Amino acid sequence: MFRTLIAAGALALAPIAAAAHDAGPSDAQIAHIAYTAGQLDVAAAQQALKKSTNPEVRAFAELMARDHAAVNDQAVALVTRLGVSPEANPTSTALTEAAAATHARLETLEGAAFDAAYVANEVAFHRTVNTALAGTLIPHADNAELKALLETGLSLFQSHQAHAEHLASSVR
Are 128 and 11 in contact (CB under 8 A)? Predict the structure, then answer.
Protein backbone atom coordinates (compact mmCIF):
# COMPACT_ATOMS: atom_id res chain seq x y z
CA MET A 1 0.00 0.00 0.00
CA PHE A 2 2.68 2.50 1.01
CA ARG A 3 4.73 1.60 -2.07
CA THR A 4 1.68 2.30 -4.20
CA LEU A 5 1.28 5.74 -2.64
CA ILE A 6 4.95 6.55 -3.13
CA ALA A 7 4.94 5.29 -6.70
CA ALA A 8 1.88 7.40 -7.51
CA GLY A 9 3.65 10.52 -6.29
CA ALA A 10 6.78 9.76 -8.28
CA LEU A 11 4.79 9.01 -11.43
CA ALA A 12 2.79 12.20 -11.08
CA LEU A 13 5.94 14.28 -11.35
CA ALA A 14 7.56 12.17 -14.10
CA PRO A 15 6.52 14.71 -16.77
CA ILE A 16 8.70 17.28 -14.98
CA ALA A 17 11.75 15.07 -15.43
CA ALA A 18 10.88 14.59 -19.09
CA ALA A 19 10.50 18.35 -19.51
CA ALA A 20 14.00 18.84 -18.15
CA HIS A 21 15.35 17.27 -21.35
CA ASP A 22 13.79 20.00 -23.48
CA ALA A 23 13.26 23.67 -22.71
CA GLY A 24 11.56 22.91 -19.41
CA PRO A 25 8.27 24.21 -18.12
CA SER A 26 7.31 27.85 -18.65
CA ASP A 27 6.67 30.19 -15.74
CA ALA A 28 2.92 29.83 -16.35
CA GLN A 29 3.24 26.04 -16.17
CA ILE A 30 5.50 26.21 -13.12
CA ALA A 31 2.96 28.43 -11.37
CA HIS A 32 0.20 25.93 -12.13
CA ILE A 33 2.27 22.95 -10.96
CA ALA A 34 3.24 24.66 -7.71
CA TYR A 35 -0.28 25.89 -7.01
CA THR A 36 -1.77 22.49 -7.80
CA ALA A 37 0.67 20.72 -5.48
CA GLY A 38 -0.23 23.14 -2.68
CA GLN A 39 -3.97 22.72 -3.21
CA LEU A 40 -3.62 18.95 -3.21
CA ASP A 41 -1.77 18.99 0.09
CA VAL A 42 -4.42 21.26 1.61
CA ALA A 43 -7.06 18.75 0.49
CA ALA A 44 -5.05 15.86 1.97
CA ALA A 45 -4.76 17.76 5.24
CA GLN A 46 -8.50 18.39 5.29
CA GLN A 47 -9.09 14.67 4.80
CA ALA A 48 -6.76 13.92 7.72
CA LEU A 49 -8.56 16.44 9.92
CA LYS A 50 -11.84 14.75 9.06
CA LYS A 51 -10.65 11.19 9.70
CA SER A 52 -7.85 11.23 12.27
CA THR A 53 -8.20 11.39 16.03
CA ASN A 54 -4.44 11.23 16.65
CA PRO A 55 -3.43 14.63 18.12
CA GLU A 56 0.00 14.57 16.45
CA VAL A 57 -1.42 13.72 13.03
CA ARG A 58 -4.10 16.37 13.42
CA ALA A 59 -1.53 19.02 14.43
CA PHE A 60 0.59 18.09 11.41
CA ALA A 61 -2.45 18.27 9.11
CA GLU A 62 -3.36 21.70 10.51
CA LEU A 63 0.20 22.87 9.79
CA MET A 64 0.03 21.50 6.23
CA ALA A 65 -3.31 23.18 5.55
CA ARG A 66 -2.17 26.51 6.97
CA ASP A 67 1.29 26.63 5.36
CA HIS A 68 0.28 25.40 1.91
CA ALA A 69 -2.72 27.73 1.81
CA ALA A 70 -0.48 30.66 2.78
CA VAL A 71 2.07 29.87 0.06
CA ASN A 72 -0.72 29.47 -2.48
CA ASP A 73 -2.16 32.84 -1.44
CA GLN A 74 1.25 34.40 -2.09
CA ALA A 75 1.44 32.63 -5.46
CA VAL A 76 -2.00 33.89 -6.49
CA ALA A 77 -1.07 37.45 -5.48
CA LEU A 78 2.17 37.21 -7.48
CA VAL A 79 0.66 35.84 -10.69
CA THR A 80 -2.19 38.36 -10.43
CA ARG A 81 0.27 41.24 -10.02
CA LEU A 82 2.42 39.95 -12.90
CA GLY A 83 -0.58 39.31 -15.13
CA VAL A 84 0.41 35.66 -15.61
CA SER A 85 -2.28 33.05 -16.20
CA PRO A 86 -1.21 29.70 -14.75
CA GLU A 87 -1.24 27.09 -17.50
CA ALA A 88 -2.49 23.56 -16.99
CA ASN A 89 -0.01 20.97 -18.19
CA PRO A 90 0.61 17.22 -18.08
CA THR A 91 2.39 17.47 -14.73
CA SER A 92 -0.37 19.36 -12.93
CA THR A 93 -2.93 17.00 -14.46
CA ALA A 94 -0.95 13.92 -13.36
CA LEU A 95 -0.60 15.35 -9.84
CA THR A 96 -4.35 15.86 -9.62
CA GLU A 97 -5.12 12.35 -10.89
CA ALA A 98 -2.62 10.71 -8.51
CA ALA A 99 -3.98 12.72 -5.58
CA ALA A 100 -7.55 11.68 -6.39
CA ALA A 101 -6.52 8.02 -6.38
CA THR A 102 -4.63 8.44 -3.11
CA HIS A 103 -7.57 10.28 -1.53
CA ALA A 104 -9.89 7.43 -2.51
CA ARG A 105 -7.52 4.80 -1.05
CA LEU A 106 -7.07 6.76 2.17
CA GLU A 107 -10.81 7.22 2.47
CA THR A 108 -11.19 3.45 2.92
CA LEU A 109 -8.85 3.41 5.94
CA GLU A 110 -9.61 4.17 9.58
CA GLY A 111 -7.69 4.84 12.79
CA ALA A 112 -4.01 3.97 12.96
CA ALA A 113 -4.04 2.52 9.43
CA PHE A 114 -5.27 5.85 8.06
CA ASP A 115 -2.76 7.83 10.13
CA ALA A 116 0.19 5.72 8.97
CA ALA A 117 -0.88 5.84 5.32
CA TYR A 118 -1.55 9.61 5.41
CA VAL A 119 1.84 10.35 6.97
CA ALA A 120 3.66 7.98 4.60
CA ASN A 121 1.98 9.73 1.69
CA GLU A 122 3.02 13.13 3.07
CA VAL A 123 6.65 11.96 3.28
CA ALA A 124 6.56 10.71 -0.31
CA PHE A 125 4.66 13.73 -1.62
CA HIS A 126 7.02 16.25 -0.03
CA ARG A 127 10.09 14.30 -1.12
CA THR A 128 8.83 14.25 -4.72
CA VAL A 129 7.72 17.89 -4.77
CA ASN A 130 10.95 19.07 -3.13
CA THR A 131 13.01 17.18 -5.71
CA ALA A 132 10.97 18.73 -8.52
CA LEU A 133 11.29 22.22 -7.02
CA ALA A 134 15.06 21.98 -6.57
CA GLY A 135 15.86 20.09 -9.76
CA THR A 136 13.43 21.50 -12.31
CA LEU A 137 10.97 24.19 -11.26
CA ILE A 138 13.37 26.64 -9.61
CA PRO A 139 16.11 26.26 -12.24
CA HIS A 140 13.60 26.80 -15.08
CA ALA A 141 11.73 29.74 -13.53
CA ASP A 142 12.55 32.88 -15.50
CA ASN A 143 10.84 35.46 -13.30
CA ALA A 144 12.97 36.40 -10.28
CA GLU A 145 9.96 36.86 -8.00
CA LEU A 146 8.53 33.47 -8.95
CA LYS A 147 11.93 31.88 -8.40
CA ALA A 148 12.20 33.53 -4.95
CA LEU A 149 8.73 32.31 -3.97
CA LEU A 150 9.60 28.78 -5.08
CA GLU A 151 12.85 28.91 -3.09
CA THR A 152 10.96 30.07 0.01
CA GLY A 153 8.45 27.28 -0.56
CA LEU A 154 11.23 24.71 -0.94
CA SER A 155 12.74 25.69 2.39
CA LEU A 156 9.35 25.42 4.10
CA PHE A 157 8.46 22.15 2.37
CA GLN A 158 11.80 20.60 3.30
CA SER A 159 10.89 21.26 6.93
CA HIS A 160 7.49 19.66 6.25
CA GLN A 161 9.23 16.58 4.86
CA ALA A 162 11.46 16.32 7.93
CA HIS A 163 8.43 16.75 10.19
CA ALA A 164 6.52 14.05 8.29
CA GLU A 165 9.51 11.69 8.44
CA HIS A 166 9.74 12.18 12.20
CA LEU A 167 6.00 11.69 12.61
CA ALA A 168 6.12 8.52 10.49
CA SER A 169 8.35 6.87 13.06
CA SER A 170 5.64 7.24 15.72
CA VAL A 171 2.51 6.37 13.70
CA ARG A 172 2.99 2.81 12.48
Answer: no
The pLDDT of 116-138, averaged and rounded, is 97
| Whole-angstrom distance, CA of residue 131 vs CA of residue 158 | 10
Dihedral class, residue 81 (left if φ above 0, else alpha if ψ from -120 to 50, else beta): alpha
User: Distance between terminal CA atoms of the chain?
Assistant: 13
What are the distances in angstroms from CA 150 to CA 13, 83, 95? 16, 18, 18
Residues 105 and 118: beta-carbon distance below 8 Å: no
Specify the pLDDT at position 172: 76
CA 67 to chain centre: 11
| Confidence at 22, pLDDT banded by 50, 70, 90 | low
Rounded CA separation 88/10 (Å) = 19
Number of CB atoms found within 10 A of residue 77's CB: 11
Mean pLDDT, range 100-104, rounded to an integer: 97
- DSSP for residue 84: -
What's the Cα-to-Cα distance from 129 to each of 51, 56, 66, rounded to whole Å?
A: 24, 23, 18
Q: How confident is the model at residue 23 (pLDDT cuts 50, 70, 90)?
A: confident
What pLDDT does 21 receive?
A: 44
